[in-house]
Amino acid sequence: MVKLHNLDIRTVTLAISLRDCIHPDVDVLCQNIRNKIKKYAKNLVEYAQDLENDYSIPIINKRISVTPISLIGEACENPDYVKIAKTLDEVATEVGVNFIGGFSALVEKGFTKGDELLIKSIPEALAQTEKLCSSINLASSKAGINMDAVLKMAETIKKAAEITKDRDSIGAAKLVCFCNSASDNPFMAGAYCGYGEAECALNVGVSGPGVVRAAIESLPKDANFSEMANCIKQTAYKITSTGELVGKKLAKKLGVPFGVIDLSLAPTPAVGDSVAGIFQAMGLEHAGAHGTTAALAMLNDAVKKGGVMASSHVGGLSGAFIPVSEDAGMIEAADKGHLSLDKLEAMTCVCSVGIDMVAIPGDTSVSTIAGIIADEMAIGMINKKTTAVRIIPAAGKNVGDKIYFGGLLGEAPIMKVKELSSENFIKHGGRIPAPIHSLNN
């Protein structure tokens, strides 16, 4: 499975609480952050590499997530969120991890002083760092959708893309908007250590779309959907068991509790490691064909069922990811015009995140971006599920062009957006109220 079908542990993410780092002097705060992260993460990469060798299972990324920085920085007398961002980036480099997440705020019901300052600083923070990732929770099934925050984030995404134009607008690729964000999610760009989380814990994200595809392809051609679902469940069980074994061993070596295992099917741009490839194994000509949403629904459900049988601590997002730039099959489908934003939005209803790593023309209006975000937030709010938007208005590029990031972030064709205006809708502002089923106490 490892050699032929790209089975891997996508990430081990050390979640570290920074609540005890708070200080009114931003310089002292930054030093406290540096000391706290180095205390817990100094051996993370070394020990993870030891386990890779012991078990011959690749651990693709080693990551850190921290308490939402809006909470940590707002007690400063003169908050400097860009300085805090650079400190996080520097210490991530010092301990050798691939990414650090938690430059975040939770604003589904409104803004604090720290929230507003952090959001304002995001474009500059992402432009001046390499490993930092940012996420903002804009909505929840309990609070509704903060439409003022939706508009503010559309402006922020646009600016983050523009000031990193020389790198194909990579700033926007490290920034995600959530509804119902998960506080123990190990995957970037949305990972942060929630306020109710432990002092430190190790969360693991497993993957293996290539393994699932191979299992489906081994079935008889006349296998029915029940047989296919059982096959996926059995495969997810094996993948989850493997991830939990390695995660618990690593947590023990680090001397921290094991947190959760996120059993999401996370693709890479490598051939054979594609969620879109699973759809083809199921019988669809390509991702985007009619039936894709049904296939994704069955896949997502079967993965969850298999995973929860293998572990009592399943958490994070735990579903199928369909990032356009990070999945070779999704890239091909978008290139050929099989995928549209509308289809990705429909697929969001049955998976973890749908508008993910999608590149759109750089001249797309702020109100259109806000409309795209609002639609995704509504799906999450009404359906009591996590949804997210990671969209890249590629500065200076248009439909027919491509952006290139390399590594796990991959590449993406510029996708068409609707020319119809959302401006008069978006400018109403305020909060879209939570649905009636939020009153379930």
Question: Can you give a write-up of this model?
Answer:
The chain is α/β, with parallel strands linked by helices and 441 residues long. It folds into two domains: 2-179, Anaerobic Ribonucleotide-triphosphate Reductase Large Chain; 207-430, Anaerobic Ribonucleotide-triphosphate Reductase Large Chain. It has 16 helices and 13 strands. Helix 3 packs across helix 10 (225-254), helix 7 crosses helix 15 (366-383) and helix 10 (225-254) crosses helix 12 (292-310). The longest helix is centred in the middle third of the chain and has 30 residues, at 225-254. The chain is globular. The termini are far apart.
Q: What share of residues are in beta strands?
A: 15-25%
Query: Class by helix and strand content?
Result: alpha/beta
Order of helices and strands: HEHHEHHEHEEHHEEHHEHHHHEHEEEHE
CATH class of the largest domain: Alpha Beta
The domain count comes to 2
Question: What would you call the shape?
Answer: globular
Query: Count of DSSP E strands?
Result: 13
Q: Counting H and I runs of at least 4 residues, what is the number of helices?
A: 16
Average pLDDT reading: 92
Roughly how many Å is the radius of gyration? 21 Å
The amount of helix comes to: 40-55%
CATH architecture of the largest domain: Alpha-Beta Barrel
Major sheet, described briefly?
A: 11 strands, mixed
Q: List unreliable stretches of 5+ residues.
A: none
Task: Please report the distance between the alpha carbons of the first and last residues.
Answer: 45 Å
CATH topology of the largest domain: Anaerobic Ribonucleotide-triphosphate Reductase Large Chain
